[in-house]
């Protein structure tokens, strides 16, 4: 038997596929053209937008322009494109093929689009266990639900197609949605359907039993009964199989029973619908297969760019589906399914299941590691099978910590914990970008970190080692969060003890706290004082940022209500809060004093010069009286000074800029001599002794043994003993004869080195 002839591929189609594949690879890599092309890239980037060229451009030049717009200054900013695999190339190829196929003759186009649409619908219904369903492909993931609402309205109101909205005046339709649904979803539906907001009913979530993110079924039943009694028409219920925030699933089985009881349409959406293609799924998600419609987003689940969302639905009347816009007679609109049709064939059934299974395993891996971390609380619906993991830093009250319980220790704890979790999420996003975590605000839990690999893993290429890196970074940040939370109150208490510092209560700042230096001069007017505060705090911030410390000092967030403040970042376990606050106050006072000195410099110098002139004039008069008039005559004075010299005493003078007067230099030289003999520039100013390599504001040994009160005393005694040894050694060296030291006998040297009896007691008293 002869084999059927093998059909050769259309050379035009093959050539187009090769060109598109090569173009996409070039655009992704960001490498196109030579040095001349790079120069043109710079020029074209600067000249955008520009006029349309009259003679046209070639393909390479156009691709060059697209590359410039895509990458921009990525080399300088460190940005990179999201990875697009081969399955992504197939999806992108589908858009180009759709344009190519649309030029076919009408009958051939109709057959091709019908085949593409029927194949894709059949595959999706079998993958996600939705029997006897139809599919609507749309770009906006809300558009499918909008078309379903039109279908339900046409079903309940038979005259709606002819009478329009007048038929709704007697019996108002009602759309019910959970409070955990996407924000603005119900408002968008009412706006597009022309319904008043009174037609939207928000059903609260559970408050007593069950998940706090699940719809309260008992309350929904009561609301529907009240609406029916008031003459309203329950139209549609929007439920979640994976809420946008926490990923929890409503009780779909019970909700389906209510919808059947009140003749309502049940629509389900959510990320957990992706698990319907797995072999083992939870019963709560399985109930979604009995709903009237569901919206799927295979693009992020499978890492497919620019593929449409799909709404699967069941309805027996094709005419009403056509009226609602769920079906179309235009073949070009059916080509929306082409990118998905190509990608599903490329991946195959096993490849699709493997990607969704891999994302679910990543969630379980992270959840198992989070159970071993202290101070981390998770919010998951099912610990055995939860595609979305939400966790939050929240130190337990029962956990031992210095100073007692952390939570409830100060007011505004919830806001501070939220700020710390916001910082935690931002740090994890920056340091482990391939994990795909993000920050989410939940009504009951507050600010949390969310890990939803079904929405991110396929596009980012998240693997097990990325989850391990996420857990490792999380383990490093938990001690920092605990120490910061513990030291916040200590920092506040220390600042309140400083008269020159004011504590700024900013509960949204994820750090040690906020402080402002206040000038001690209260005689300034409001404008002058404000300028002084701004100047001192800006200089103080610059000084603190130059210090060798692990702490971060900043002027705060960009949009911050408080101004002229110093925001102090996260703290570590060995932080010396008292030293930190004392340093801030000390540096601030120095800046304020130096500012006063410069402000008064003109007046001080002027008064000082006048006083200096008077004193110099007085000194000249005294010299004239002491030496006589004859000695002032040039020639006669020289002869008299040669026969009878005068021992004139020269008095040194210094000009004190702070006080604006002349002082004698005798105290300066006496103090300097005393400092050279008794003081050392390396002597500690306080009882704390800094070790080599130890940074500022860090307590030595804080990580091992706590420093007791006697430790500082022992350091002080050691410094006294070292000073005493230095002084005794100086006395011994002063009494040893300096001539011929090598020939001095031992007994003579030892006798000469003895301290006289009277001087020994006197030196010990001086040391004490």
In short:
By secondary structure, the chain is of the alpha+beta class.
Architecture overview:
Its cofactor is pyridoxal 5'-phosphate. Residues 676-768 are annotated as: Disordered. The chain contains 27 helices and 17 strands. Helix 6 (106-127) runs parallel beside helix 16 (338-370) and helix 16 crosses helix 18 (453-460). A seven-stranded mixed β-sheet has the order 1-7-6-5-4-2-3, with helices on both faces. A four-stranded antiparallel β-sheet has the order 8-9-11-10. The protein has a four-stranded antiparallel β-sheet with strand order 12-13-15-14, covered by helices on one side. The chain is α+β, with helices and mostly antiparallel strands and 768 residues long. The N and C termini lie far apart (119 Å). The protein is 51% helix and 10% strand.
Structural class: alpha+beta
Number of helices: 27
Mean pLDDT: 78
Largest sheet: 7 strands, mixed
Provide the low-confidence segments as ranges.
40-47, 75-80, 397-410, 679-688, 703-768
**Alpha-carbon distance between the two ends:** 119 Å
Number of beta strands: 17
Helix content: 40-55%
Using only CA atoms, what is the Rg?
A: 41 Å
| Beta-strand content | 5-15%
The geometry reads as: elongated
The largest sheet has its strands arranged as 1-7-6-5-4-2-3
């Amino acid at each position: 038997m002869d084999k059927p002839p093998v059909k050769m591929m259309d050379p035009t189609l093959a050539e187009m596929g090769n060109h598109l594949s090569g173009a996409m690879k070039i655009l992704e890599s960001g490498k196109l053209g030579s040095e001349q092309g790079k120069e043109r890239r710079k020029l074209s980037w600067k000249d955008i937008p520009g006029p349309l060229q009259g003679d046209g451009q070639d393909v390479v030049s156009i691709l060059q322009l697209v590359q410039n717009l895509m990458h921009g200054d990525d080399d300088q900013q460190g940005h990179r494109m999201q990875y697009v695999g081969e399955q992504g190339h197939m999806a992108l190829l589908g858009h180009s093929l759709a344009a190519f196929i649309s030029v076919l003759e009408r009958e051939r186009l109709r057959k091709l689009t019908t085949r593409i649409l029927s194949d894709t619908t059949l595959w999706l219904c079998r993958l996600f266990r939705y029997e006897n369903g139809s599919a609507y492909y749309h770009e906006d993931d809300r558009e499918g639900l909008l078309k379903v609402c039109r279908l339900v309205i046409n079903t309940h109101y038979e005259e709606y197609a002819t009478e329009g909205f007048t038929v709704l005046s007697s019996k108002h339709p009602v759309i019910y949605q959970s409070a955990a649904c996407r924000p603005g979803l119900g408002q968008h539906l009412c706006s597009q359907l022309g319904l008043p907001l009174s037609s939207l009913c928000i059903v609260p979530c559970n408050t007593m039993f069950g998940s706090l993110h699940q719809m309260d079924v008992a309350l929904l039943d009561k609301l529907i009964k009240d609406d029916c009694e008031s003459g309203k028409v329950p139209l549609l219920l929007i439920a979640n199989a994976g809420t946008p925030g926490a990923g929890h699933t409503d009780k779909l089985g019970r909700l389906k029973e209510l919808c059947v009881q009140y003749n309502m349409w049940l629509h389900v959406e959510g990320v957990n619908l992706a698990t319907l293609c797995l072999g083992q799924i939870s019963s709560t998600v399985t109930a979604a297969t009995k709903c009237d419609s569901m919206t799927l987003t295979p693009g992020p689940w499978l890492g497919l760019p620019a593929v449409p969302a799909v709404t699967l639905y069941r309805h027996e009347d094709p005419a009403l589906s056509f009226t609602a816009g769920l079906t179309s007679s235009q073949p070009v609109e059916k080509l929306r399914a082409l990118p998905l049709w190509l990608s599903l064939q490329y991946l195959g059934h096993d490849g699709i299941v493997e990607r969704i299974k891999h994302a679910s395993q990543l969630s379980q891996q992270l959840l198992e590691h989070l159970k071993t971390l202290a101070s981390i609380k998770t919010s998951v619906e099912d610990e055995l099978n939860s595609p979305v993991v939400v966790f939050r830093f929240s130190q337990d009250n029962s956990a031992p910590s210095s100073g007692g319980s952390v939570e409830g220790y100060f007011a505004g704890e919830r806001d501070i914990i939220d700020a710390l979790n916001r910082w935690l999420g931002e740090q994890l996003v920056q340091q482990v970008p391939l994990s795909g975590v993000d920050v989410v605000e939940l009504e009951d839990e507050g600010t949390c970190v969310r890990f939803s690999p079904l929405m991110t893993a396929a596009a980012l290429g998240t693997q097990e080692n990325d989850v391990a890196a996420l857990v490792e970074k999380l383990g490093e940040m938990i001690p920092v969060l605990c120490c910061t939370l513990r030291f916040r109150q200590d920092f506040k208490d220390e600042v309140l003890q400083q008269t020159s510092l004011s504590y700024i209560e900013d509960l949204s700042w994820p750090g040690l706290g906020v402080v402002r230096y206040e000038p001690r001069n209260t005689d300034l007017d409001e404008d002058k004082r404000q300028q002084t505060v701004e100047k001192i705090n800006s200089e103080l911030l610059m000084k603190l940022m130059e210090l060798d410390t692990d702490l971060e000092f900043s002027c705060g967030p960009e949009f911050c209500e408080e101004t002229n403040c110093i925001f102090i970042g996260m703290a570590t376990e060995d932080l010396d809060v008292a030293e930190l606050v004392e340093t801030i106050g000390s540096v601030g006072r120095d800046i304020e004093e130096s500012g006063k000195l410069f402000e008064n410099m003109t007046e001080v110098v002027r008064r000082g010069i006048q006083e200096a002139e008077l004193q110099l004039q007085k000194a000249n008069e005294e010299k004239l009286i002491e030496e006589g008039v004859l000695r002032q005559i040039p020639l006669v004075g020289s002869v008299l000074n040669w026969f009878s010299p005068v021992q004139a005493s020269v008095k040194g003078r210094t000009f004190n800029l702070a006080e604006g007067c002349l002082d004698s230099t005798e105290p300066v030289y006496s103090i300097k001599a005393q400092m050279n003999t008794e003081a050392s520039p390396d002597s500690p100013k306080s009882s704390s002794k800094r070790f080599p390599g130890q940074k500022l504001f860090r307590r030595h040994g804080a990580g091992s043994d706590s420093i007791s009160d006697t430790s500082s005393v022992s350091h002080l005694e050691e410094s006294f003993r070292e000073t005493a040894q230095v002084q005794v050694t100086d006395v011994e060296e002063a009494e040893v004869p300096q001539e011929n030291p090598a020939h001095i006998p031992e007994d003579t040297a030892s006798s000469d080195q003895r301290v006289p009896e009277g001087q020994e007691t006197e030196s010990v008293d001086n040391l004490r």
